Amino acid sequence: MIRINSRGLTVSTRRFQTLSKIGSTLKTKEDIRNALNSPVWSLKELISSNEKDMKSVEVSAKTINKVLKLSAFDTNITAEQEKSLVSALSAQMVFIKHLYENDEKSDSVVEENDTHFRLIASDHNPGEPLTLKQLLAQIEELPEKVDPAKGETQGSFNVANMNPRNRPFATIRSKQG
Amino acid sequence: MLRVRIVGRPQKLVPSFCRLVHRASASTSDPWNSLISSRINTNKDTTSAEKNTVTGSSTSCNSSTASTDAASSPAGSLSGTTYIAKDNIVTTHEFSTGASRILSNYRSPFDATVVLLLDAAGSTLLGKSNLDEFGMGSSTTNSHYGTTLNPLYSVEVETGKAHISGGSSGGSAAAVAGKLANFALGTDTGGSVRQPASYCGTVGFKPTYGRISRWGVISYAQTLDTVGIISDDIHTVEKVYHVLDKYDDKDPTSLPDDIRNSLKSKCSEDVNSTSLTVGVPREFVVGDLSQEVKEVWFSVLSQLQDMGHTVKIVSVPSIKQSLSSYYTLATAEAASNLSRYDGVRYGQTTEDLQEKAHDLIVANRTNGFGPEVQRRILLGNYTLSSESGDHYIKATQVREKLVNEFNQVFNLRHVFSNDTNVDKETSGRCDILVAPTAINSAPTLEEYHQQNETNFLNDYVNDILTVPASLAGLPTISIPRGKHGIQIMGQFGADQTVLDVSKKLMEVK
């Protein structure tokens, strides 16, 4: 895991109390059948968003308006649409609450947000840090590394070709009077 | 007008493609001509093309038969083969829509790396397949182009007997099941290759995250999106995988060559394919599994036992939290990725003149995205907002915990692991894990919509069997057993082990 802090990049390994375990060998067909016929939980537990849970999540009209704006969607919605949206956001929050099961504290605000687990090789095994000389050499080499497939050379991406069914330009009318 | 609906019936049902598939596989001696010509016709008519589950490729579909094209393709390990690409994989010769109205007029200025690699290996692209818009869904009903039905069942929608093809790569799986091509490309974010493959009775392989380039794949959730392969022949899947398993410097998430080489030597040393330890994660034994699915699971584990392998029960507790983690990460990443679509530089733009630039963007996005995509963008932005809390960070922590728990279960040390304590004692650990792909076979359209009308989370929780491997980036394949699928999962990077076990299992089917 890569950690970005005031001292720069460091790699650290978070210690978890690991609860996974290797169980017994299923020696016979009967053992296998018994194991598959002994469910340990049900998906209904995840969606049993009972009224109490749903009501504990407060989603105001102001929040709905903010989220619509953040998403660049039309904020002019009907009361019914707003109700549906409140219900969807509440259901999502009840669903997300399962993230905090087995946690000692249920506070959903973390003090540090400089860690971010990803499955990217360089996050876990970063190479040697670059020296200034190497960095400058890389900058020097940039002009030879431009790639038309990435649109990095003049004219390699033609907007008109990308929108063959559209007029090439959008027009915005200035407000009259 | 904002179109937010908790449950959305498809705007239109388009069974024509599936009828064609059904008829082709059932009675027509040479289905290719009719199918290709119909695609050429629809391709000429750009309006009706939008109603088709497969859009034609102008490069490969203008000759009289597909086989002529394939025979003249360049020499390579896939010479003579044909394929179909999910329409969220960009190509220069036709529109790349992601099954969204907002990209219905978008033509990419570059080809995806996977398309270039397949071209170089001699395979011929026949067309692009339908999907849930931007990959968001498990049914291929959330598409601007209509619903793709499952060719294994009746496609008479009126009788209520039509079944969904699964999703989001439902078009790719249906095309393979209908024998339209040797293989199809899909993308798998939380099970979108494996689940439709299972529903349509085909093989669906999601390789390790980072194995196959994502350059040219329209992003949904970039920390999870993986290109996958669907075919009815496991050997074809393996050949295609070997063509695509290449480092790509255009994709920052691509596994570097030194990691690939290290994995190659480790996997060949560590796996003795005649005596494997097979794990059965107890958290996958949910009360919701159908009796048929349990029978299929039992039969595969029994086969493995009869082959001389050891079957063990294992526990990976964080599997129970994986769905909450997945839908936090996926919606947040979707909200970010889809913020680029404004219909100004490219994509569908409104004909109505707007007074402000902002109004233009709002109109384009509100009219351009379907209801499910809008809901996921809103959920993502809400999840990321200060009103709700720091859930994204928490979800990545649960993801990390899940990866560590899988590391404790697998024999093979994780190639990223620098925690030596994790790997002290590996005896008795597993080489592979085996679980069903879906909790039941494909539901009918009616059943599917009824289920989701109650609560949209019903659709989300059905991904419980596929999402854990996505979060951990594990190579996982779904192999068919009738109208069900069984998943074989390996440690991160152990793709070949997964393929080898699958080949053996498919031999003794």
Automatic annotation (TrEMBL), chain B:
EC number(s) per UniProt?
Answer: 6.3.5.7
Chain ranges of the Amidase domain: 64-499
**An example Gene Ontology biological process:** mitochondrial translation
Broad class of enzyme this protein falls into: ligase
Segments of this protein annotated with the region Disordered: 43-77
Please tell me whether the keyword Lyase is annotated for this protein: no
Record InterPro entries = Amidase, Amidase_CS, Amidase_dom, AS_sf, GatA
Subcellular compartments? Mitochondrion
* UniProt-recorded Gene Ontology molecular function terms: ATP binding; glutaminyl-tRNA synthase (glutamine-hydrolyzing) activity; hydrolase activity
Q: Could you list this entry's UniProt keywords, alphabetically sorted.
A: ATP-binding, Hydrolase, Ligase, Mitochondrion, Nucleotide-binding, Protein biosynthesis
List, alphabetically, the PROSITE patterns matched. Answer: AMIDASES (PS00571)
Q: Which residues form the active site?
A: K86, S168, S192
The GO cellular component terms are:
glutamyl-tRNA(Gln) amidotransferase complex; mitochondrion
Q: Where is the composition biased (Polar residues)?
A: 43-54
Describe its assembly. Subunit of the heterotrimeric GatFAB amidotransferase (AdT) complex, composed of A, B and F subunits.
Q: Which PANTHER family match?
A: GLUTAMYL-TRNA(GLN) AMIDOTRANSFERASE SUBUNIT A, MITOCHONDRIAL (PTHR11895:SF7), TRANSAMIDASE (PTHR11895)
Q: Which HAMAP family match?
A: GatA
This chain belongs to the protein called Glutamyl-tRNA(Gln) amidotransferase subunit A, mitochondrial
Q: Which organism is it from?
A: Scheffersomyces stipitis (strain ATCC 58785 / CBS 6054 / NBRC 10063 / NRRL Y-11545)
